[in-house]
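Before going further, learn to read the protein records used in this course. Taken together, the tokens spell out the fold as the letters spell out the chain. A record is reproduced here so that you can trace the correspondence yourselves:

***
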Amino acid sequence: MTILQRAATIAAMTFSLAGLLGHSTPGKATELDRTAITTPVSVSYNTLAPANVPQIVPAVTPVFEPAVTPAPIAPAEAESEDFDSLAEAVAAQDSAAANESLQCLAGAVYFESKGEPLAGQLAVAEVIINRAKSGRFPADVCDVVTQRGQFSFVRGGHIPTITAGKAYRTAIAVAKVALASAWNSPAPKALFFNTPNRSPGGRLTKIAAIGNHIFYR
């Protein structure tokens, strides 16, 4: 082969190779659109959820405060009724003997001091009440009245039947005044009484003389 022929052959081969390179298919790696690859975005739970994603709101359990019960209001104390006289205090009472103690006290007032001034009747009632409080006599009003050897009107440990009338109604009213301490006794703290013609036994202190009775302690 001549030099000219060899040069022509090399030129032809070069031209063919260039043609092949110009019409070759690119590799798959070159087809990737790298602009579609985005950097992952970290999502914080403190940020707002995207509009197209439903936001889950945690349920909140309501807290109910306990009801406050108002402190009970203390009832107002009953005002004590003031009287201008013992007679007014007695007149303000009704004549119903509501309980046994009242009946026993009214019976003693009736048998021991009916016909006496109201002050004397009240003093008799107060003697019986003072005895019940003293600790030296029975603590019950009826037991004081029916105690053996103390009041002559008692028969066999019982108070005789009383016929209802003005004197007994007054005795009931006086007994109520005494039990309610609605009027001060004219013979305070007296534990005994007697008629002037009878000398009391023991060393007693005279407190007052009212009507036909003298009161001692």
Remarks:
- The CA atoms of residues 143 and 158 lie 10 Å apart.
- The two ends are 175 Å apart (CA to CA).
- The helical segments are 3-22, 86-91, 100-113, 118-134, 141-145, 166-179.
- Residues 86-186 form a domain with the Arc Repressor Mutant, subunit A fold (CATH 1.10.10.2520).
